[in-house]
Amino acid sequence: MKLFTPDYYVESYRAIDIEKLKKRGICLLVCDIDNTLVAHDCAYADEDVRAFVERIKQSGIKIAFVSNNVKERVETFAKEFDAPCYPFAKKPLKITYRKMVKELGYAPHQIAVVGDQLLTDMLGANRMGFYTILTTPVAKRDLTCTKVNRIFENMVFQLLEKQGKLKRGEYDDKVL
Fold first, then answer.
1. 8 Å CB contact between 173 and 7
2. Which of 22, 38, 83, 113 is the 20 to 30 Å CA partner of 106?
């Protein structure tokens, strides 16, 4: 169950303590897009996301985007930030994360990944040895494949709660 357990659990990407990341030696924040930053059917970032990305960049941490969604959607979203993006990532497989490490030149301990799903984002990033940050989904609506994942994710949440490792809604940091 350790592979599903995030290192840091926040209510929203807006609650991420950037200083905490810097103290851990994080140099790259890899953000899932769909239901982590915006709803899956929102093509562009909103003002909150823009402000968040700007805070990350001003802190000296680089940013990249990763998604299991299609190239056009991911590139459209990431373009305004002039940041690397990795569409059709096949998370939780390691292939895209390995490519990212090679292309961007960071060691696994320097990378944090933020996402809203235990079965894709946390599992994939934990398998690579990245620092993992779980957020609550920004929207209730999901793609059909994600709805199926959420059924299994609920089972994993229940197991993690029984083991005392993670309880849904008991965040390390809340949005102020």
1. no
2. 38
The pLDDT tens digits of the residues spanning 72-120 come to: 999 999 999 999 999 999 999 999 999 999 999 999 999 999 999 999 9
- Find, among 75, 69, 64, the residue nearest to 130 by Cα: 64
Q: What CA–CA distance (Å, rounded) separates 153 from 156? A: 5
| pTM: predicted TM-score of the whole model, two decimal places | 0.90
CB 89 within 8 A of CB 68: yes
Interacting residues of 66 by C-beta distance below 8 A, sequence separation 6+: 30, 31, 32, 33, 85, 86, 89, 91, 96, 97, 100, 113
Terminal C-alpha separation, the chain: 30
